[in-house]
Amino acid sequence: MKAFRTLGSIAAVAALVAACGGSGHDVGKELGLQNPEVHFVHAIAGGPTVDFLVNGSPLQTGISYKQVTNFANINTGATAVAYANTGSTTALASGNFPDVAKGHEYTVLALPGLAAPDIGLIDDPFDKGLLSNDARVRAFNATANAQNVDLYIVPPNTDINTVSPTMAGVSFKNAAPASGQDSIYLSGGNYVAIATTAGSKTPIFQSSTFSLANNADWLITTVPVAGVLSQLAPNQIHLLVAQGGNTTTPALELTNTLTGS
């Protein structure tokens, strides 16, 4: 829970952050004053274009695979979320956040399922330090064909036998850190993403080198390789990177350099 601050303290901290080039938007989140925000990630390869519903009404519409919507303000309290075929309010999958709170970021994901579309939910309390420039990173497992993975976000040429996973035991339909916990923080720089079956050091996925910027806000989601057969084949995965809810930049799909897929 975010600590209570007096108005005088809030003003002083906000002035300090502004002087140091910080974001007043992030200050509001950190102090628990910013309205709660939600965004939507479409992670179903080959899935239909959908509308994102909040409490039964469309909030964002016409969302296609790999699109990440901008953050939008929502009210506090119990909140029902769902997604439906564009133009419809008949949910393909639904869920709820029991107690939406100020200062938190919420993510809703359209997920592939073997029998029917599924949904993923993340409550991120956004406890980033006011003066931190680190990137915020979280993972989500949307792969029924790789249901428990370790994820390494490490500098290029790192021997993962010598390090612990960055996010360990990311289980199917769950986030790491878990929903309700803050994201992890990494310094900006060049990294590779490596996934293994949980407890193993044998990669099933390894990306090319990518740049992680200071103050980035990343959600890295494991998704099946496109195609029905690939979704059933063990460990055939890609990674989708949703970057800060910016609709001008669709989620980046990292390919597996181990297979060239």
Structural commentary:
The protein is built from three helices and 19 strands. The chain has 261 residues and is mostly beta strands. 37% of the residues are buried. It is globular and about 50 Å long. The chain folds into two domains: 1-34, no CATH class; 35-254, no CATH class. Helices cover 10% and strands 43% of the residues. Strands 9, 12, 13, 17, 18 and 19 form a six-stranded mixed β-sheet that branches. Strands 10, 11, 14, 15 and 16 form a five-stranded antiparallel β-sheet that branches. The protein has a four-stranded mixed β-sheet with strand order 4-1-7-8, with no helix packed on it. The model is unreliable at 1-25 (pLDDT under 50).
